[in-house]
């Protein structure tokens, strides 16, 4: 059974989908990979270009979820925590 992992970006940037794309490319067989949704499509284009430079495709149909209680994850990676100075 695959372990479930969530890449979380509190600011809804494309960082979570970039992380999902990299792990999908490098080690997808052992993970059920999820990420938080993104807010801006312009960021998605930039992420696509950056990943393309290193030969990794941006996940076109990511498994996304808004974090809420009730879902279980084996691992979680916080990529940006939002406003940390508040």
Task: Put the structure in a nutshell.
The protein has 86 residues and is α/β, with parallel strands linked by helices.
Q: What layout of secondary structure does this protein have?
A:
Blueprint: E1 3-9, H1 15-27, E2 31-35, H2 41-53, E3 75-80
Parallel strand pairs: 1-2, 1-3
How does this model look, in words?
It is a single chain. With 86 residues, this protein is an alpha/beta fold. It has one domain: Rossmann fold (3-Layer(aba) Sandwich), CATH 3.40.50. Helices cover 30% and strands 21% of the residues. The chain is built from 2 helices and 3 strands. A 3-stranded parallel beta sheet has the order 2-1-3, covered by helices on one side. Strand 1, helix 1 and strand 2 form a beta-alpha-beta unit. The longest helix is centred in the N-terminal third of the chain and has 13 residues. The radius of gyration is 13 Å and the shape is globular. It starts with a strand and ends in a 6-residue tail after the last strand.
Strand order across the largest sheet: 2-1-3
How much is the average pLDDT?
82
The helical percent reads: 25-40%
Output the CATH class name: Alpha Beta
Output the helix-strand order: EHEHE
Structural class: alpha/beta
**Shape from CA axes?**
globular
**Second rung of CATH, namely the architecture:** 3-Layer(aba) Sandwich
What name goes with the CATH superfamily?
Response regulator
User: Based on DSSP secondary structure assignment, what is the total number of beta strands?
Assistant: 3
- Major sheet summary line: 3 strands, parallel
Q: Which blocks of ≥5 consecutive residues have pLDDT under 50?
A: none
Strand content: 15-25%
CATH names the topology as: Rossmann fold
Query: What is the CA–CA distance across the termini?
Result: 40 Å
Q: In DSSP terms, counting alpha (H) and pi (I) runs of 4 or more, how many helices?
A: 2
Could you say how many structural domains there are in total?
Answer: 1
């Amino acid at each position: 059974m695959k372990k479930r992992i969530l890449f979380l970006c509190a600011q809804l940037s494309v960082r979570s989908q970039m992380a999902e794309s990299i792990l999908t490319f490098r080690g997808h067989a052992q993970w059920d990979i999820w990420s938080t949704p993104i807010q801006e499509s312009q960021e998605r284009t930039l992420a696509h270009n950056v990943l393309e430079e290193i030969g990794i495709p941006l996940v076109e149909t990511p498994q996304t979820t808004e974090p809420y209680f009730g879902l279980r994850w084996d691992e979680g990676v916080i990529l940006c925590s939002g406003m940390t100075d508040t």
